[in-house]
Fold this sequence. Notes:
seven-stranded antiparallel beta sheet
Amino acid sequence: MDIDSRGLTAKEAYKLLIGSIIPRPIAWISTQSADGIGNLAPVSFFTCVGRKPPKVSLTIQPKSDGLSPKDSFLNIRDTGEFVTNLATLPQIMPLHRSAVEFEPDVDEFDAVGVEKEPSVLITPPRVKGAPVALECKVDKIFSAPDGLHHVVWGEVVSFHVRDDIYINGRIDFGALAPVGRLAAEYTVVDNAFVPPLPDEVMARRTGQRMERIDHLGDEYSAVDNSDWSASGAVAE
């Protein structure tokens, strides 16, 4: 199948992108409005873009109406600060619920049942219980001509790493159970390897469907269900 991207709508291109670029790490972004209202948002168009100084990148789209800027972006723009909290399995339910488009006057920490942890160098709080959190100050904001799609570069001014996973200047990722995105579903990273793998492992794994760890069978595929919607799954 060859698909000419020039003929795709934004929605059609988005579906192909999120199914092609997998797994995507999730930046669980905590911000605070100028009025002191806390906000949480999972952002999976996320990566690192520098190391000296350390920087991360967030791509933030408009709300589901396609017209309004997300509260998290407004907070980042107005205050110049945000925290990137690591998304892990123990906090998957509040992370998932934080994708709901709450009203701007709702403190989303309270709404999803997450406690705040004070940051050290910036005002927005961290997520209590997140094993890693990066305090960030805005470095640059790149906005698309439509004024609704934005890329934010943030300089990491402070790393918070849970004591038991900080070893020899590194992070023991094997103890974290990080969660990522597969299209609009989730995955938990629960295995690691260094190639080459044994032949029997390669033979067993090649062509094998992904294991599901929810109540759905291994043969289930969300893309076969035209009515399925990740957005609907987090409706308030």
